[in-house]
Amino acid sequence: MISLEEKEQELKAFQAILLEVQQEIGKVIVGQEEVIQQLFWAMLSEGHALLEGMPGVGKTMLIRTISDVMDFRFSRIQFTPDLMPSDITGTKMIEINVNRKQSFVFHEGPIFSNIVLADEINRATPKTQSSLLEAMAEKTVTIMGETRKVASPFFVLATQNPIDMEGTYPLPEAQMDRFLLKINMSYPKKEELYEIINRTTGTTTYEVRKLMNTENIQLIQQAVKEILVSQELLDYTVNLIMATHPADENASELVKKYVRYGVGPRGIQSLIKVAKARAFCSGRFHISKGDIKQTIFPVLRHRLFLNFEGEASGIKEDIILEDVIQHVDKVLNGR
């Protein structure tokens, strides 16, 4: 049995790898430290992530750089309205062998990679978007009645533009729920713009080293699962989830006014998983209330379904979640 001291040494070794990986990514990507951390939370939790941001903020470049630092098989799919499901999953084609006999041979699509970049995912039709759903949920792909496993580890990192709605197809709720995190990517700060200009308009090119492989990430994923969760924090998390339901007695006024449906069971599972990943990255063997409060926004912002009044008012899900946290803290402290 591994001793506590050995566990601590293993944890420090894994953290050193992750820190070196983030520093290597920083050679190419300026700023966006919080976004990079959240992407790592998703990958350490064996989940998928959706990046939403304005054009030109570096969503695609960030994902490509992460794949460059990791010695993983990488595929990029540019989603367009004419993209077909078979363009993602692959298909069987008739081939003639040396004996002139015909047979069906399966040709793998880009889904059979460790990291799949689904660029501008909301530009494809719902039928094509759904071709990702089985792979994201079950890590399998069924083609002509035959089920095949995707690579392991497997991550779908998707991007979408929040403003240009012309020619787009909003993701179905079922597929949105399959993304562990929805990460908002903001504009760079003023000082970061200077650094971006210096790095991208000169003659210097930046190459990154491959610092992580599939074996490393799987070992770290297993270590993350072993992070402890106290009953007190589990109770707190359950109260937060229940408070997102407008019919619950502890729901806040904003939830009652603007929310149609609250967060489902997959939401609390995801919240605990990502809180464990954050605790691991912070060098702790247990999650804290701070882990829950920091991870609740990327984990739950796409799992709240607003009513008509909420949609019309333009209220942001993060504001509602902040109100939920404050309300639950008041209720629990008042007992």
Outline the structure in words.
With 335 residues, this protein is α/β, with parallel strands linked by helices. The protein has two domains: 4-84 and 112-218, Rossmann fold (3-Layer(aba) Sandwich), CATH 3.40.50; 228-333, Orthogonal Bundle (Helicase, Ruva Protein, domain 3), CATH 1.10.8.80. It contains 15 helices and eleven strands. The strands form four sheets. A five-stranded parallel β-sheet has the order 2-5-8-1-9. It has a two-stranded antiparallel ribbon with strand order 3-4. A two-stranded antiparallel ribbon has the order 6-7. α10 packs across α12, α12 packs across α13 (289-300) and α13 runs antiparallel to α15 (317-333). The protein is globular and about 80 Å long.
Task: Briefly characterize the structure.
The protein is of the alpha/beta class and 335 residues long. It has 15 helices and 11 strands.
